[in-house]
Amino acid sequence: MQRWKVKIAYDGTEFSGWQVQPEKRTVQREINSALGRIHQGQQVNVTASGRTDAGVHAKGQIIHFDSPLQIPADRWSKALGAHLPDDIQIIESVPVPAGFHARFDAVAKEYRYFVRCGQERDVFSRHYAHHVYKQLDERAMQSALDHLVGTFDFSSFCASNTNVVDKVRTLFEARVERISDDQVVFVFRGNGFLYNMVRIITGTALAVGTGERDTGEMVTIRDARDRRFAGKTAPGHGLYLWDVYYKDV
Amino acid sequence: MQRWKVKIAYDGTEFSGWQVQPEKRTVQREINSALGRIHQGQQVNVTASGRTDAGVHAKGQIIHFDSPLQIPADRWSKALGAHLPDDIQIIESVPVPAGFHARFDAVAKEYRYFVRCGQERDVFSRHYAHHVYKQLDERAMQSALDHLVGTFDFSSFCASNTNVVDKVRTLFEARVERISDDQVVFVFRGNGFLYNMVRIITGTALAVGTGERDTGEMVTIRDARDRRFAGKTAPGHGLYLWDVYYKDV
């Protein structure tokens, strides 16, 4: 039995997120089904670094699974890819020790959130970036985000319907960059993320960027530890799970 | 009655091209249907600068139609947009003289063709760029394309199932540019294009770019005036109708 660590990308547009749900097209279901075919119908369970919601994309999701098959590392990606739909892509397959765990061994994750702004929508990015009709002040947004770098109780930026008790997380990086006149990208890197955390932080930062809220309010919102203080949850289709970091492998 | 010249963009992925066909989702059908709703069910015919095939995109398709409605220019785009699906976008609406014709008055058109190259496919561009697994020599491709700038009989670059008799066209520009390590774009501007002309020229240029064919062969192919001499027709999803030029309006 060999454990495999596999990096995948997917276009979340036509998926009801990562996790298997009855009668829904999900990424996990497609991968389970591909692994089943490769293993002649034998079920192989796959574990991801974490779930992604409907419409959310991945550039570097990490999964693991165990296989009795003697397939060389450089051929696993092609073998899997051959059984996957064209909105899932295998980027790399690496053999790892049996103790490796895609979720529990992750030491950091990076998410990116893409936003287009201005009067004109762009038909080609409708599934790949959130559109805001106003211009965005990225300096104001960056000042607001600076208040979130460090270790805090992020309860204000967590969807209220969650079971997680400990809401303390560390953000190593919270950055916004202008890509072009009508595009910005948010980059978040941290040791863990609460449910909807990136989307709520982004929604709040966008309210600062359009001038609806002041930069300094970010501190009040953060310290309130109450979801009702923060802004809207930005939509899923602007969000990308960009990378997952591990200690050794 | 006012004639309107309207610039539209569309993501061709989920359309069976421009032209109305029974039981197919086409761009023309969606626009007819939107105009019908705005005009309380009265049919309004729409004419485009030309057809686009299934999967082909438009950044600047031009259409015209006549309307008895007194809607100001700055509100036509919103009025139409409100009745259109989100893969069609109205960019600009301009009132024009009744004699204006989107197809017959076009003096030039620009098409662009996007190609990604290299070992790694990109899941996010699968509908928006053609993927070639080899590296591309853009200098060789440019030298080949240089032989096509001017006025020629382009029969070699025209799909054989066409009724057009006169296959002489003028290309003002035939250019390839590297966008990044794994992306190139072809730009074609001419006074008219034969059926599949851009896709056949691109397919032939790509054969030069990968080294399968020599630069100089482009002259032989051009002068043969025979479709069988040229390369493959590149797939539709890399192609964009980029702009249409008119004399005055």
From TrEMBL, chains A, B:
EC number: 5.4.99.12
Keywords: Isomerase, tRNA processing
Active site: D53 (nucleophile)
Binding of substrate, residues: Y111
Protein biosynthesis found in the keyword field: no
Keyword tRNA processing: yes
CDD domains from the UniProt entry: PseudoU_synth_EcTruA (cd02570)
Gene3D superfamilies named among the record's database cross-references: Pseudouridine synthase I, catalytic domain, C-terminal subdomain, Pseudouridine synthase I, catalytic domain, N-terminal subdomain
Domain Pseudouridine synthase I TruA alpha/beta: 9-105, 144-246
HAMAP family assigned: TruA
Entry similarity comment: Belongs to the tRNA pseudouridine synthase TruA family.
Function: Formation of pseudouridine at positions 38, 39 and 40 in the anticodon stem and loop of transfer RNAs.
Name of the protein described by the UniProt record: tRNA pseudouridine synthase A
Organism: Geomicrobium sediminis
